[in-house]
Write a structure and sequence with these properties.
The protein has helices at about 40-45, 45-60, 80-95, 110-115, 135-150, 165-175, 210-215, 225-240, 305-315, 345-360, 375-380, 405-410, 420-430, 435-445, 450-460, 470-475, 480-485, 505-525; strands spanning about 5-10, 15-20, 25-30, 30-35, 60-65, 100-105, 125, 155, 155-160, 165, 185-190, 205, 245, 255-260, 260-270, 275-280, 290-295, 320-325, 365-370, 385-390, 460-465, 490-495. It is an alpha/beta fold. The chain folds into 2 domains: about 5-130 and about 175-240, Rossmann fold (3-Layer(aba) Sandwich); about 255-525, 3-Layer(aba) Sandwich (Rossmann fold). The longest helix has 19 residues, at about 505-525. The radius of gyration is 23 Å and the shape is globular.
């Protein structure tokens, strides 16, 4: 079968961001909405859901993946029902394209969304679902309290892991009872010993053991759940049957207008790197441009949609931003189950070079930055200098690229992402002996930051490194503060937090203010 046709853009009002894949050959009358998990689960699961869409396309089934209003690349919204309306909008796209039957797949928290959005006769797949909205919210709050501390509410908004909820939004999710619609074929794919929601007691049930290494880890070490994806795709293929139809290309918005900002999709360089460009409105051809690299193996939105919020605020200040999916992340390239990760790899350096070439921004109007591994990529020598280098929570100062897959093999097993292990790591950060901390700093950051800082100083008009307490400690232990004493264009800022991944609202807001102020100060004539 030919490769599926892929379409990207915005749809509805307020607009959801959508990725539509139509089969390249005969198309089933069944189209499937792949509902987006909430918070960090949606970030980690991104490539896995892309692989599921590819597998369904090979079986002749059209799919839609999406960000609902108020999340990710979609238009802002505070509507408590926006997460459910996003799924319904995705289903409307499939119907307009020519699908007469709709299926919904909900992974983890997205099972709540799938069960609400599905109507009578729709096909439903719940993949590692909670037993109810209330149970999911209780578990998410417990994990967030362990990771972020008990004081998670800021100005009426509570922080979960990579997710902010207002009280009405939390209430809407807590009120969901998972019940299969009348006449709906249903499949529940659960972890070992994971209970099936009571409202799906009559569904086909299967246990799988590949969800934990897929979802319960960071994006850096997530393993694609090939067995579960094949099982779900085969079951949906059986539900589709033999009926076929002609599908039409969806009518999507090419741009998203957001008051003082406008967003559009860019494909950059020979590897067609997917990016979202946010520009001031009305546009300024000479606007400064910030190229942002995400951390870990994450796509262009950043933790808690940090990069989206930053880009839209900067547009109101007259600054354009390009949020990039490097190879192996987000929408860039194909998804291969056996592909090695490219964290700290030469391929990501090449991606940044190609993106800068494609943007063709004069050096005095260019800023390059990123979070953690994105800061490492941004620091690499460029074909052109930049006015500003911006590092957010940098943690590695060895400029030498790692071989593809080496980060997961050598470092990622020591990276803690949640639950009791993160609580234990936070205790380590405060109380571990000095010699233990030095060994870990050398492993993560390298033993010497001099080459790194020389490159940053020589290629940047100004370099700003913004640290959490822990990241600053690593920088100090590799000699960073002593070195920058002789580099007048390099400066550091420490924020009072140990929240390296920016999961907490307070941390993100403080970082947004710091970064925004730095960009404006640099480019104010």
């Amino acid at each position: 079968m030919a490769d599926p046709r892929a379409f990207h853009g915005w749809y509805g009002e307020p607009a959801a961001w959508v990725a539509v894949q139509l089969p390249g050959g005969p198309a089933s009358t069944l189209g499937v909405v792949l509902c987006t998990p909430l918070g960090q689960d949606g970030v980690v699961a991104y490539r896995g859901l892309r692989l599921l869409a590819d597998e369904l396309g090979r079986r002749g089934i059209a799919t839609v993946r999406y960000d609902p209003p108020g999340r990710g690349d979609a238009a802002p919204s505070d509507d408590p029902d926006a997460v459910f309306e996003g799924a319904r909008s995705a289903a409307a796209i499939l119907r307009e394209a020519g699908c007469s039957r709709i299926g919904f797949v909900g992974l983890s928290s997205a099972a709540l969304i799938a069960s609400v959005a599905a109507g009578q006769g729709d096909v439903v797949v719940l993949w590692s679902p909670p037993s109810s909205g209330r149970q999911w919210l209780r578990r998410a709050r417990s994990l967030a309290t362990i990771m972020l501390g008990p004081d998670r509410v800021d100005d009426g908004v509570e922080s979960l892991i990579g997710l902010e909820l207002t009280e009405p939004q939390a209430a809407a999710l807590a009120g969901v009872s998972l019940v299969a619609p009348d006449g709906s074929p249903a499949l529940v794919v659960s972890r070992p010993n994971e209970p099936v929601p009571a409202g799906f007691a009559g569904a086909t049930t299967v246990e799988v053991d590949d969800v934990a290494p897929f979802l319960d880890v960071s994006s850096a070490s997530s393993v694609l759940p090939v067995a579960s994806i094949g099982l779900i795709a085969d079951w949906l293929g059986a539900q589709a049957g033999d009926a076929t139809t002609e599908l039409r290309a969806p009518q999507l918005q090419a741009e998203l207008e957001l008051g003082p900002a406008v967003e559009r999709i860019r494909w950059l360089g020979p590897d067609r790197l997917f990016a979202i460009e946010t520009r001031p409105r009305p546009d300024r051809p000479d606007a400064p441009v910030l190229l942002l690299n995400s951390g870990a193996a994450e796509h262009r939105v950043g933790p808690g949609d940090f990069q989206v919020e930053l880009a839209r605020r900067l547009a109101a200040d007259g600054v354009a931003t390009v949020r990039l999916d490097r190879r192996g992340t987000g929408e860039t390239g194909t998804v291969a189950p056996d592909a090695p990760d490219l964290i700290y790899a030469a391929e990501w350096i090449e991606d940044q070079e190609n993106a800068i070439d494609a943007l063709a921004v004069p050096a005095d109007r260019l800023a390059v930055g990123g979070l953690c591994s994105g800061a490492w990529v941004a620091a690499q020598p460029a074909s052109r200098s930049r006015r500003l280098y911006l590092a957010i929570h940098p943690a590695r100062y060895d400029l030498a690229p790692m071989a593809p897959g080496a980060f997961v093999d050598e470092v990622a097993p020591t990276v803690v992402t949640g639950g009791f292990r993160l609580w234990l790591q936070n205790r380590y950060r405060r109380w571990a002996p000095t010699w233990v901390r030095r060994l870990r700093a050398r492993r993560l950051g390298g033993t010497d930051a001099s080459a790194f800082l020389r490159v940053v100083a020589s290629h940047s008009g100004r370099a700003v490194l913004v640290f959490s307490e822990v990241d600053h400690e690593i920088f100090q232990r590799v000699g960073g503060e002593e070195l920058i004493a002789g580099m007048p264009n390099v400066e550091t800022v420490e924020l009072p937090t140990i929240d390296h991944p920016l999961f907490a609202r307070r941390t993100r807001q403080a970082m947004l203010a710091e970064v925004r102020g730095c960009v404006l100060e640099t480019f104010t004539e």
